[in-house]
Every structure is written in structure tokens, then in C-alpha cells.
Design goal:
The protein is α/β, with parallel strands linked by helices and about 290 residues long. The protein has a single domain, classed as Glycoside hydrolase/deacetylase (TIM Barrel). The protein has helices spanning about 20-30, 45-55, 90-100, 105-120, 140-150, 175-180, 185-200, 225-235, 260-270, 275-280; strands spanning about 5-15, 35-40, 60-65, 130, 165, 210, 240-245, 285. Strands 1, 2, 3, 4, 5, 6, 7 and 8 form an 8-stranded parallel beta sheet that branches. Helix 8 (about 225-235) runs parallel beside helix 10. The longest helix is centred in the middle third of the chain and has 17 residues, at about 105-120. It is globular and about 55 Å long.
Length: about 290
């Protein structure tokens, strides 16, 4: 029996600022967005939660961060992941420490727990977890995330399997990914092992994840209806996630590179377009949220 095709379209960075938060909630009722993940350390987190309360059908999870925003836990309790001024370490420094195993798992667990609890204290029940800048692929953050997920009984999360770049004119498959990333084969085998480990420990995840960004080959995928149509027509059977970053226009070079902000606006234009719903239906793809995984 052939599995049906289902697709989660999840917007990261909810609560990053007001423009991103507004863009996300506009995409949900107007277009194809089904879920989002909130950044508890960011200044607009409370604003975003209030928006979400007006959309009870929107699936809201936690976008766990270790390098953007201010820590939710007291910095004195998490010294291995904070700088002398109490802020998070910069993203490059956090990644270097993660790669070298220099982060303390207990510090990460304290901060991840505080981020989940902030969402709960603001009145929402998290539906799923993922991590900002994919920090959860490193060993200490990975196991801390799983412990926090079990602690708060959050059983759904983003897959750790390697990314696909979209769109593609060919059928998308894991063999295609492996061939295009031959030099990265050990890393992708590691990701496969993480995916299997999560499944064996009772976590529910999509089978694949996709994104409109540079992962395979050269250049960026076109973020438009044509690219979206090519993606949904090529989706494999089973459940997939399309990782989204929509936003209304804003200008804050200190927080986001201008070229990346422009891509966010392109994604907003795409995911708020009701024609995406027709493209999914015509391609035999059912849109679902993380609550339905």
C-alpha cells in the first residue's frame, strides 16, 4: 500500500521580532503555513504568544536557541554557554565549542528547560521542538534536547536527517542527496543514526526536511510559486517538512543580514499566497501540522 504524501510547513524564528511574528501569523490563515516554532530568548516572544493565542489551530513549538537573544535562565547557572556580560556566546564561538565538546550538557539542559517553561508560563503548550542554527546536531545539545523533550512530554521534533535543497527537476531521494554530498557522507551517516535513535526512543518526526536555501549545488533556489510547485510534485511518500522563514519587511543589520531579510520577505510572499493550497491539492499533497505527526 502506497503511503500518502503529507507536508508540514513550519516557520522558524517566531518571536524574533514583531515583523517576523506578524508575517508568520499572516501566512497561517491566508496560505499554506501549518506550524511555527517560537524563540523564547527574543524580545518579541511575548508579543508572538499573544498573536498565537488568537489562532488556536496554529501548532506552536519551541525553536531552541543557544546563540541568538538573551538567555532565559540566569547566566550564573549556565557559564559554559554565556559570555562575561551574561549574553550568549556568538554563533561562531558556540559552534566551535560544540564541535570540540566544550559545552556543558547540564548548562544547555537548564537553558533549554527555561525556554520551554517560558512558553508554558505564557500560556501555550509546545507541540514540538527544533533548534536555531541547527545547534541540536552537536552531541551535548542533542542529548540535552532529548532530555528536555522527555521532561516536558514533547514527543514531536524536526528530523535530524540531512537537508534537501529545493526545487529539483528530478524525483527527490536520499540516494540523490548522498551522491551530491559524497564528501559529507560521514556527517550524513551520523544524521541518519540520530534520526534512528530518536525514533527508537519514541519521538515522532517527519521522514525528510526541505528548505529554500543553499545546501546542494550552487546558487539559491527560486522562492516562488514555480519552485514551490516543483517541490510538492517531487515530494516522496510519507511525511516531509518544509522549513520556512517568512517575514514582513524590516531593516536591522545588527540582527539579520539584509540579503537574508530580503529572502524572508520572498518567503512571506510565497507562503501567504492561497495558490499554494491549490498546488498542494493538485499534487496530491496533504498539508498537516506538527500536532498531526
Amino acid at each position: 500500500m502506497k503511503l500518502k504524501k503529507t507536508l508540514i510547513i513550519n516557520a522558524d524564528d517566531f518571536g524574533f521580532n514583531q515583523e517576523i511574528s506578524d508575517g508568520i501569523v499572516e501566512c497561517f490563515p491566508r496560505g499554506c503555513l501549518t506550524s511555527t516554532t517560537l524563540m523564547a530568548p527574543m524580545p518579541a516572544a511575548e508579543y508572538a504568544v499573544e498573536l498565537a493565542k488568537g489562532l488556536p489551530d496554529l501548532s506552536v513549538g519551541v525553536h531552541l536557541s543557544l546563540c541568538t537573544g538573551r538567555p532565559v535562565a540566569p547566566p550564573s547557572q549556565i557559564p559554559s554557554i554565556t559570555a562575561s556580560d551574561g549574553s550568549f556566546l556568538t554563533a561562531p564561538e558556540m559552534m566551535r565549542r560544540a564541535q570540540r565538546g566544550k559545552l556543558l550538557a547540564k548548562d544547555i539542559e537548564i537553558e533549554f528547560s527555561a525556554q520551554v517553561e517560558r512558553l508554558i508560563d505564557l500560556g501555550l503548550s509546545p507541540s514540538h521542538l527544533d533548534s536555531h542554527h541547527n545547534i541540536g546536531v552537536y552531541p551535548q545539545p542533542f542529548f540535552a534536547l532529548l532530555r528536555v523533550a522527555k521532561k516536558y512530554n514533547i514527543r514531536r521534533m524536526r528530523t535530524y536527517r540531512g537537508w534537501f535543497r529545493v526545487p529539483s527537476d528530478e524525483r527527490l531521494g536520499r540516494l540523490q542527496l548522498a551522491k551530491a554530498n559524497a564528501k559529507r557522507a560521514p556527517k550524513h551517516l551520523f544524521y541518519e543514526a540520530m534520526h534512528l535513535y530518536c525514533r527508537l526512543n519514541g519521538f515522532k518526526m517527519p521522514n525528510e526536511k526541505f528548505g529554500f536555501h543553499r545546501v546542494l549545488g550552487d546558487g539559491l533556489a527560486e522562492i516562488d510559486l514555480n519552485g514551490f510547485e516543483r517541490l510538492v510534485k517531487a515530494l516522496p511518500s510519507g511525511c516531509s517538512e518544509l522549513v520556512a522563514h517568512p517575514s514582513l519587511p524590516f531593516s536591522d543589520p545588527a540582527m539579520d543580514r539584509p540579503e537574508y531579510t530580503a529572502r524572508r520577505v520572498q518567503e512571506y510572499t510565497l507562503y501567504s499566497d492561497p495558490r499554494t493550497l491549490d498546488l498542494c491539492r493538485d499534487s496530491g499533497v496533504e498539508l498537516v501540522s506538527y500536532r498531526e505527526v
